[in-house]
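Deviations from the work plan: none for this task. Representative record:
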Amino acid sequence: MLQDAANAQAKKDERTITTRIADLLAQMPANDAGLLTNNVNDIANLGEEGYVTLISGLVAPGKGNNSLIEYTVGGFSAYITQNGKEDWRKMSVSAYCKALQKLTDKQNKSFIISQFDLVGKDDAVSCLQGYLTDDQLADPAARALVKINTPASKAALLGGLAQAKGAAQLSIIESLGDARLKEAAQPINALAANGDANVAKVALYALAYIADPSSESVFAAAGDKSGFKYENTNAAAVCLIYAEQLIKNGNKELAEKIAKNIIAKTSADELVGVRTGALKVLVDANKDNNQQILLDAAGDKNAEYRAAALKFAVPYLTSASTGLWVKKLGSVNDDAKAGILGMLGQSGAKEALPAVLKLLSNKNEHVKLAAINAAVNIGQDQVLGDLLKLTAKGDTANVTAVSNAIHRMKGTGITEKIAAAIPSAKPNVQVALINLLASRAANGQLSTVYTQLKSKNPEVQQAAYAALSHVVVKDNLPQLFTLLNESSGAQETAVQEAIIAAVSGSGDNTQQVEAVLQEMASASEGKKLLYYKVLASLGGEKALKAVTDAYATGNEQTQKAALDALSTWADAGAAPELIAIARETKNAAFLNTAINGYLRLVREGAYPAEQKLLLLRNAMAVAQTNEQKQQILKDIEQAKCFNAIVFAGKYLDDSALQQAAANAVMNITLAGTYNGDLVKGLLNKTIQVITGGDSGYQKEGMRKYISEMKAGEGFVSMYNGTDLTGWKGLVADPIKRSKMDAKTLAAEQEKADAEAKESWKPINGELQFMSHGNNLATVKKYGDFEMLVDWKIIDDKKGEGDAGIYLRGTPQVQIWDNARTNVGAQVGSGGLYNNQSNESKPLKVADNKLDEWNTFRIIMKGDRVTVYLNGELVTDNVILENYWDKNLPIFAEEQIELQAHGSPVAYRDLYIKELPRAKAFELSAQEKKDGYKVLFDGTNMHSWTGNTVDYTIEDGNIAIRPKPGKGSGGNLFTKEEFSDFIYRFEFKLTPGANNGLGIRAPLEGDAAYEGMELQILDSEAPIYKDLHVYQYHGSVYGTIPAKRGFLKPVGEWNYEEVVVNGPKIKVILNGTVILDGDITEARKNGAPDGQKHPGLLRNSGHIGFLGHGSPVEFRNIRIKDLSKKAAAKKETAKKK
Amino acid sequence: MKPKEPQEQNTRRDFIKKSAVGLAAFTIVPRYVLGGTGFIAPSDKLTKAVIGVGSMGRGHFGYDGTQVVAVCDVDKRHLDLATSMLDKGVKTFSDYRELIKLPEVDIVHIATPPHWHGIMSVDAANAGKDVWCEKPMTHTIGEGKRVMEAVQKHGRMFRLNTWFRFKDTFYGMGTTVKPIKKLVDSGLLGWPLKVTVGKHTGYDWKFYWVGKDNLEPQPVPPELDYDRWLGPAPYKPYNAHRVHQTFRGYWDYDGGGLSDMGQHYIDPIQYFLGKDDTSPVSVEIDAPQQHTDAVGTWRRITYTYADGCQIILDGEGKDTNVPYIEGPKGKLYPGFKSDIPDLERKLAAFPDPTPQMTDFVESVKTRQKFALNEENGHRSCNIVNIGLIALRLGRSLKFDPVKQEFIDDEGANRLINPVMRAPFTI
């Protein structure tokens, strides 16, 4: 049905063929399967002639770009090879044949010929035939004929053989082999003896696959000539292929004869590969009766031959033939025995098990090992007893082999049997068995291990201690605490590990911490240290306090134990302690432990990229060794953000850190989408310096990335680290400034600049506010932008930390010390502090502590601000109100300012990216003249109230984006009320969309009843097929139906004009009056839907969009207030 | 403290070590001289010849237990660079067939672009050599079958050179594959399993390995034998982007990031899912249309096995919390993290996976199949090649793992075994 529709459309299509081809090529390549289907339909609709014209657009390589035509042709060929596209396939073959006539360049011809590889059938044969004598085109033509694979295509190849010379002849011979054409055997037999090595090679190849008995002598001669050594015609191998193909063709006798002949002539060791191949032929030729051949081969003197024979034997092994192999075991040398055992084990031959078990005690080590492996493969847990018996004498090789076998043994009761064997075993066996209990986590066997803790043999004892942690459960804890107090040295550590294992996974951490702290309290001083790591494994605040206190107050030994514990801490809680230790310690070993522990926690922690970077920069600030710094740079790869690229980039010149930095820059950049000269510069530098095995790939990847970067986008630096270039002092506020004359402003500016130099100082590349003076402002004004800034409240111990970022000259994105609960700072930084009606508080507290850095990412679009603090969203697309004059929307563009608030603050890494903005809507001259007023021009929602959260601004449109499952999206109303008016706007629907235009509505209640609702609805969506007439688009809801059928297709913009004048309501949609009604009747007698509509009686109210859960967009909204005119008229009338 | 790792279990080596005490230092003599009637002395180094000594091939000179005695390349500059790195006596060739004729060569190491892997592997096997081949194993499904047959028929040892199924930290997983295999075998995750391979599970598809769809013809540099470089591939005019460092972006020789990285990532999955002897039954793709010559990118490729297990290749990385393995009873995330509490201890109670032969020199000397060989290597390469065919055709496909053919799709089947340019044959 789709195709019919497409054909119907094609008939109507009045575009010229040239236009249609151009339109089609413009759609290439398709981005997904759906678009591919559309494109293929379009190609089919071009028809054969049109398609030929399209293909004829191919130009000689180097003379232009063929890629769109190649996409088109390749895409069509591939698509139509699926079932059910036969008509299109025929069309394509015909078109390709015609196009071949038109094309002149051989490479283009070759491209079209290669399409027949996929789409060719008999219909392509005649047009391919002609190319079989062409030196260059015979190859693609012959290949296509092979793929066509019909009697006609094969006949064409055979016909070509007679005429072709040189390269064309080679192609045809090879293709005849690929086509397996019997009739070609005779002519090729003659060519095989041709002097040309290439001809001989392809001839033998072809003959081997054709496998006609007539070629027997050709192969015999070729094989003998080669001596069955590898040479350029590959004679020995093709002899074998010939024999294999003979078997496939049912000629087993000839195959067997050839194989035996080859075996006889290849007894030399260096020819064992060929002899093996012949054996395979012999085995295959005697499928039903090959056991003796295989048994004999398995006893051959050549190890490679034997090994291969055993592999050939596997598929033929049956329970009946297993007996023969068992018998064979008795008559062969040890190496061959081992091989046979391996084969029996691999096959899981149950019948062989008794024989295998007998060989467990064989004197030859190869044989014994093979028997052990075969036994466990066949018998699994059934042979455990036999294997344990084998260890009775304690022979090391046996113990190792048996122990390895038990590791992979399947079955039940294994650990029990091992445990039972331990008491009476020799010490080295005890060690191995205890290790087995440990590695198989034999929880039930603690008592056995416990007994061996007291073994007199030190190795056994050591193994028992090492096994403890693997076999304990939480019930064993009291026992273990006692044991800890009794043990010393390495055993202490083992018991410590066991306690850690027993408390882990036991559930209630708090309880465990309590228990451990209690034990620790009663332990002797020397033993206390052992508990730190146990606490570390549990984590939590209480445990942390105990260990940090120990570090703070203990001697060096205690400190070391506490630090070791902190560095293995179970949760991220220890990170601040570790960095604090790293910052203050003078001990290089402590520093190293602290940094590595800290880095581990940062690595494992679920931090947003920006926060992770800040944490890693803390480590970099105290790192001493290159090793530490390299690790930090490596970890920075996990902090994928712009700042991380810039930070890592700073180390590209440091020879010891260069490679780590280069990898970080590359891996972060390539994983994201970054533009701009900063990143490009760093990538170029990385390309220069990166080395290593993969660097060729990597450089290519980076070059490609650079070539795809968008020009003119990306962050630029706002602060150079050394002076106030780009910045100026603050003069008054934007409104006051705009009223100053140029001279006054210049004078004021000069004063402000001088002051700014005293208040804002570059220190160590950072920009610091000296606690006095005024805001620092950018010289440049910004409209829409994304800004990055790191800030730090310096703790001056006064507890008044406060600052902020002014956007477009307006306060502010708040920065403050969140300990200042007296001023409400506990909500955290990043809110729009001065907002009155819109949200002013951040969504969450994401601040780092005083004296630690924070990162803001601030995005301002239109009147909306989004703030991320340390990677957390804290302000989500909130309107920034105009602080200086509440009656104005936020300025369209203004400077950015760093606020002065009397407390010391530092800034660094200030970057900004200006964002393109939609052009603001402007009234037409006529509308201006007629007295229209803009309600929404795409830049701000200043005229609106209600749900300004779900109704947001996107690309200059009001977009309602209801959160899935979270209600309707609510209503957005004009702040002003209107009674009579002309309201013009545009809207765009999504499938099934439902919204409404409220008029004369109060801000509260259901506007459809408390006011009136003019439906905004995708009327033609299937889900709305059963609505009442007064519910479709444009209707006064429930009251007056509108005409249907004038909406633009979903996804296109509709233009609507609503005229409300007293009881009369008119709706004009896309130029058609779809409703022209009067509510007088409904006011009197009620609405046709039978519901109460008190709103019908209202004479005035707000106009608004009424959310019903669907995404819809609106734009270019303006209004003409008719009542004002009427009132003015009345006024004039009165005066008269 | 961790339990002692059981020693690698191809312990024939340990036995041999014991019996070989007292033997003189390394002798370099070809294996067939020493071999023959028994296993060769373990202290003897094997000899190796490397075909393709571009950056990849040159990186493979220094393996333990082998000595490079010959190298081959169709680019003279590569040969010069290689010889400068090697001992004086090393022989150089521009035609690999001359190299594999050398009686003193035990192992042929193939480090060429993939469109040559099949032919060279088969020829080396024909010549009685053991083979060490770089990934992806073969450029087509058909060539993979041929390699498998030739290697087995001639009793050769074959090593496909990706190794994550038996050693090294497995990309973003933060662990070797062994515990993953043990976990899968234990059944703790349930069945069937879904394995997702993409950015967020630690695997990068290197999508910069795409081709350019409008290459201008350029003069062939004098040091390069371009015709031999192309070998079995269709003739196309030379452009530097086709060869060396960037060949992966062209269907004729490789298949972009999926070919480059696919077998590294997929082979261990085949192994731990226990699918070494089979293939998926369907592949679904979500990708932009591909150019006929230049490889492009893709968004998602989903393979499904007959039992419902799935491998998802994620090219977009949209889902940031996706587990690496997901089963009905549990999930495994990178770093061996799991939603199953106390997983490591629960797992310890289960038996270890069957040990693997992980030393190729050992494998060659004892004729035991290497862990990643012509058989399972071909199966994991099939997954790559099935995906490439689906991408080239722009549609989802059904596959018969026994016949190794697509079901009811003539177009796809015509791509299983492309015909080679004469006189190159396999």
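Residues 33-55 of chain A form the longest helix (23 residues).
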